[in-house]
Structures are given as structure tokens and as C-alpha cells.
Amino acid sequence: MKFLDYAPAPESQALLSLKSDYGLFINGDFTAGRGTPFQTINPATEQQIAMIATANEADVDDAVAAARHAYDGVWSRLSGSDRGKYLFRIARLVQERARELAVAETLDNGKPIKETRDVDIPLVAAWFFYYAGWADKLDHAGVGPNPASLGVAAQVIPWNFPLMMLAWKIAPALAAGNTVVLKPAETTSLTALLFAEILQQADLPAGVVNIITGDGSTGATLVNHPGVNKVAFTGSTAVGRAIARSVAGTDKKLSLELGGKGANIVFDDAPIDQAVEGIVRGIFFNQGHVCCAGSRLLVQESIHDDVIDRLKRRMQTLRLGDPLDKNTDIGAINSAEQLARIRELSDLGEQEGAERWSADCVIPENGFWFAPTIFTNVSTSHRIARDEIFGPVLSVLTFRTPAEAIAKANNTPYGLSAGIWSDKGSRILAVADKLRAGVIWANTFNQFDPSSPFGGYKESGYGREGGRHGLAAYLKPAVRTGSRSIAAADHRTLSVSKKSASAGKKSASAEKAAK
Amino acid sequence: MTQSPLATYQPEQRALALIGGEATDTNLRRYLQGIPGIDAVGLEARAADLGTRSIKTSSKRWAIDTIIGLIDLTTLEGADTPGKVRSLVAKALVPDPGDPGTPRVAAVCVYGDMVGAAVTALGSAHAAAGETEGSGVQGVRVAAVATAFPSGRASLAVKLADVRDAVAAGADEIDMVIDRGAFLAGRFGQVYDEIVAVKEACRRADGSMAHLKVILETGELNTYDNVRRASWLAILAGGDFIKTSTGKVAPAATLPVTLSMLEVVRDWHRLTGVRIGVKPAGGIRTSKDAIKYLVTVAETVGEEWLTPHLFRFGASSLLNDVLLQRQKMTTGHYSGPDYVTID
């Protein structure tokens, strides 16, 4: 036998008991939606997992009304420490049910169990723990003494990290004293609904969190609803732009976490084996369905061939297949639509003259799959160097000097993430200072922590999630009756000039978010 | 890296061609410091990630038997006697009396003065010199630690005499220690020359050579960058194996340190086409840990390295834990420490 053909090691699904139909979670209870239900499938098998309700306009009205009622009647009156108790309770319940949530997430999303078990779900718990601790310390959130919550937050999240994105949105919103109506992505509603069960277990007062499901039109109805005070969206730049347009002119506060085309810069003095690991983690983690993925590899020309050779060898050890198998590294693409987009852009890359190489792997018959792929000989003018592919596809470019690396890294409409690989600390700091990206990793990639703010520049959106700065998106300075002058200061957040934004990297963006 | 004519060179020529001159401190420093560094956090994360592989059912069965066949069953005590060594050899030959199908270990590892006792105790089961695997029942080899093991603090003459004694007594493999003091003081040329001299001392009267394992004592080198440089140095100087530790210094073998050495071996193979062995030693006590090493070897250098010629575990208590797992897989239930023999 070949040892490397590891025997199957599937995670058991026995812990998970799913219902055949899921309703909307409004005012603390599950209710049938009034729209047409839709099926959610396992992207690795294309089998139906459950039927999910669609919220129509009347359902959205109900959800917003429930959130408003809970805000006025209960949540905004609770002390910070009492809100914190609920959040701590939710965090502990997430930990207790971690394995069940990991299996459900893997079934519904297609990502490997290794990642849901070791990354997604632990981070979900960490986010609730972190913001639970903030709930009674809002005076120190950087918005002045005794800051006020905003009211009802409408939150729309993507399919790539379903439960983690839910945690990034709900935890700070609740800690700051807001109530929530959240809409998960159409293809990945399942874990949000299991999370609703956790909220019931935690005895969270009815209406504080409402979860409504449906397609993009449900999301549009929600963000356009006149009853919401805050809109938070994570997803594509195109949808983000539409939301910004629809929110313009209202007094809704907005934060957007959009696309990216992160540059992963490898200098010739990099710790080469770890850099190769970082490249793999940067683009093949979660099948590349990561907005901050290191999808553009900028490698110094002098070590290009060696790095690519090592990268290809490493990619041959990636295991693509059953996401529930504990040894799977690359799971399924989340949907047929996304797979089509990845294929389209990859084919375009070939037509444009880039050289395509994929790891050998057996593609299962059913489900949506895409072998880990790299393109070499890519130029900055190629579409695959500019457009977000959102899949396991890496575009490799070269540079000769640090100045050229910086110029190429910044030559993108996006500005979410970047990575720098070098053994020389001073170079890392000097380059980081000139990169226009919200998150910069040094000698690592795709690391997340609730205490670290996350967010983008330019078309990658605005506002920060995580850390103290993530609270600012859900707070406003204390409002004194009869005075609007302080509240008006909020609007500066949105109009900070790009010039000042480029001044001091992370700390500059941090201050900005804190305003 | 481009394929160079290095593959066709004799080892000494190859080393000098790579170093770009004689093996002086300056040339060696220039060469070793030109090797890319290691990011400790990244290396440890990669090792931890490899440690999460889930090896079940048929893969586990194969892994367990493979581990047994890769063990250098070791006794390195001041209190060692011929009686103790006989007992160790008996265990090496019949690890589990309850199951004659159990594979034998690769070698027994003893101090130099116990080589004779080990050879006598093995008798016809002593692997013939130059014997390769796959020739019927696997013979067991005798490995001897030498060169003033474990500290290495003796004159070169004493170290070489130590090696020659062990080889003359019938040792198939010599586990030498590098001079960590010289390495840390930057006297790379001295470390290099010593390994070359020890290698020469491994030559038997008939011209064949005992295998040379070079112990880096990674616990004293302290940084992964040092481990990487010492690994290159040992391979350049002609070591057949690079070995982590003596077992007398903590920390001994760890998965990240072994991974970093495997990466050197992989790069050396890419560069020259030559395969060098790796031996983590000390601190590997459970089947679970040993399986993590197998995974790390297979996914870093390839599973063709999982043969006694290219990979060994230096261990003593590991064997019984593996045997307990083996019994569990055969019978379906766990037994206890009284159902495996002590050596």
C-alpha cells in the first residue's frame, strides 16, 4: 500500500440532528417564512441538506419590528455587565456544541472539517468571549465617555465563513447595546439557524437577534428598511457599492467589508520553506474563498524559479476530497455559480498568455471542485492579476526591487490585505509602511484574532471589525438632548481623505476607525 | 535550483565545489549563512499541522509495523552490562512473544564497549554487512555511540580511537556527536574536519564502511537556524544520517526540529540526487507521536524515506507502546503493560 493514500478518516455526523425544514428566527421563535422556501445543498455531493424559508417584505418588517421592540424595551436598558453575561453564555455554548457546528458548517459550505474544527468555530467562540469582555467597558472604546448604541443593526454576511462572519457581526453589535437582524448568505444559512437555537438555549431576550433567510432580494429589503440604524455588509464589491448607494442620504451608519486582491510579497532573504507554507495558506486556505487571500504572489525575480519549484512540490501534497475527512486540505467550491466564475477567470488567464499549472488530484464525480492552480508569467495588466477570483487560483508576478514590489502591490483597486516575507525586520517595517492595505502580515498569512482590527482601503470597503475599533462601528458618542453637534462628527469617518489614510498604515487606519 | 553535475562528483569534491574552496571557517561560514533562514513560528505551525493528520485503520496498521522496523532499540546507561545488552537484543529479535509475526527492530544501539556483547547475542540474526532490506527475515544491526558520547569533549585522537574500537568490535553503524562548542564558536572547519576524520575511521579492514550517523544535539544548538546549518555541515562532511540528539540533553527530538532537518535532506536530494537519512532520538515515547513523524517524513521528503536505510527512531520505551497499539488492533481491545515484555 501507499502510506500517503491515508485510509478514510471521516468525522462522524452522529452529533448532528438536523431538521428537514428551517423557518425564520424572529422575536425568539422560529416562524415559517412567507416567501418560497429554497433548498440548501451540500456542495461536495449536491445532495439536499434541508429546506430553508425565504423572508418576504412582511417578514423583514416583522424582524425589524421585533429588533426595535427588543432594543427599546430590553437590550438598550440592560447594563453592560448583563449584556456581557449573555455573550459569555453564547460563547460557552458555541464551545460546547463546537463539533456539531463544525460538522454542519462543513456539510453546508464544503470547507474541510480540519478548518471548521480548528479555525472557524474556535474563532466564533473567541469573538464572543472577546466582545463579552468589552460590554461593560465601552467608556474605553475610544468614542468618549458613556457612548450610545445605534439601535437596530441590519447585517448581511457572505458564504465563505458563515458562522465566523456571523460572530464578527453579532458579537460587537450586541456588546455595544444594539439589536440585530442578520441575513446569512443564501447557500450557507444552516449554521446561522443552529446558532439561533443556541440563542434560545442562552435565553437571550426575544428579538435581540433575529435571523432571516433568503436570497439577495431579502438582503436588499433589509438594508433598505427605514427602521434600521446601521448597515453592516461583508461580500462582493459590486453589492457593497449598491448598498452604499441605497444608504446614501439616510442617517444609517454603514460599514463595508468587500473584496480584495492581496499581495503576498516574498523577498530573496525570506525563510523560504515557511514562505511556501504561507503562500499555500494565503491562497488555498478555505479553497481561496477568502476576501483577504494572498491571491497575487509577488516574488523577487532572483528566487522565482526556486520558489515555484518548491511551491509545486508542496501543492502535490494537498489533499482534495471529502470535506468531512479529517485529512482533507482542499474541500468543495461553495456553489456551481462560484465554480463557473473561477473557471471563467482561469480560462481567461490562459488566453491572456499566463502559464497554468494545477496539482494532480482526483476530482470527485459529484459536487463542485477546482484543483489548486497557479499561474506563472502573469503581468499586472492581466485580468487574473486584477480581478478577485475568490477561488484556489494564484497569480504569480515578479519584482526586482522593494520599490517595485510596493508599486505592484499597491497597483490594485483593492486594499484589504498583504503579506511580507523577509528575514530582515527593518525591511518588513519599511515596506509595510508603504503598502495600502488594511491588514499586513509579516512572515505569516491569514491569521485572525478578535483583538486585531480588520478591514480595507479603497474598493475593499470601510470601517473596521475586530478589536476596540470594531466597537466603533456600533457606537456613537454620548448624545446630549438638544445637541446634534457631536453626533454629526460621525460622518467624518466616511470622508477621510486617501492622503491621510496612507500616512501611517495600521495605526492610521486604527485611529480612523476609532473616530 | 538547477540540476548540477554535482550528482556525479565524489562526496569530498562535491562538498568543496559547493563550498567554493577549502573547508575553512570562512568559506563554510559564507556558505552556511547563505542558506535561507527559518521562521520559528512558521516551522512550528507546519509541524503542528502535520501532527493533525488522522491515521486510521489500514494506514495505522501499516504505520505501526513500519515504526517497529525503524526503531534503534537503545540502552545507553552507565549501568549497562553484557546481561542487559543480551536482554535488549532478545527484545529486538522478538519484540512480542505473543505474535511471531511482529517485525524486528532495525538495530540495537549501545555504547562502544558493549558492541561485542551485542554482536555475540545477535549471533546469526546479526545483519550481514551491506545487507539490504527485502532479503528474507530482516537482520538486526548494531549501532554504537562513539566520539566521547554524549558530550564530545575529548581530543580528536581519543574520539577516533573510540570509533575504531567500535567498528573493530563489529558495529555496523557509528552514532557520533559533533563538537557543539566548536560549532557555536564558529569553528565550522573544525567540526567539518572531525566528521571527515570520523567517517574515515568507520572504514573496516576489508575496505567497507560502517554507516555514520551525525548527532547534532539540537537541544544545545538552541535555534532552528543553527540546526539547519549544522545539518548542512554534517551532510557536506559526509554523514550518512543526521540525528537530532543524544537523549542526554533536553529538549531532545521534537517534531519541528526533525521537520527542519528533513527539509535539508530534501533539498540535498534535489541538489545532488543523494539520499541522506534522518534519526530523531530521545523523547518519542508513544505510537501517536511516532505516527506524526511518519507523516512528516512522508509529506516532506516522500514515503520512500520510510525505510531503515533512511529513517530511524532512537528510542527505548516507544517499542512497548507501539506493541500495545498493535495488540489492540489485532484483538480489538487494550491490554496492559504486563502483556508486553521489558528488555
Structure, explained:
- The complex is a heterodimer of chains A (515) and B (343).
- By secondary structure, chain A is of the alpha/beta class.
- Chain A folds into 2 domains: 30-258 and 461-472, Aldehyde Dehydrogenase, Chain A, domain 1 (3-Layer(aba) Sandwich), CATH 3.40.605.10; 263-452, 3-Layer(aba) Sandwich (Aldehyde Dehydrogenase, Chain A, domain 2), CATH 3.40.309.
- Chain A contains 18 helices and 20 strands.
- The model of chain A is unreliable at 483-515 (pLDDT under 50).
- Chain B is an alpha/beta fold and 343 residues long.
- Chain B has a single domain, classed as Alpha-Beta Barrel (TIM Barrel).
- Helix content of chain B is 46%, strand content 10%.
- Chain B contains 14 helices and 8 strands.
- Chain B has helices at residues 11-19, 25-33, 40-50, 57-69, 82-93, 115-122, 156-168, 180-184, 188-201, 218-221, 224-236, 255-272, 287-300, 318-331, and strands at 71-74, 107-111, 141-145, 173-177, 211-215, 241-243, 277-279, 313-315.
- In chain B, helix 12 (255-272) links the parallel strand 6 and strand 7.
- In chain B, helix 4 (57-69) packs antiparallel against helix 14 and helix 7 (156-168) runs parallel beside helix 9 (188-201).
- The model of chain B has no long low-confidence stretch (mean pLDDT 94).
- Classes of the chains: A alpha/beta (515), B alpha/beta (343).
- The A-B interface holds A 1-9, 114, 118, 269-274, 277-278, 305-306, 309, 317, 326-327, 423, 443-444 and B 1, 36-39, 41-43, 45-46, 52-60, 62-63, 66, 263, 294, 298-299, 303, 306.
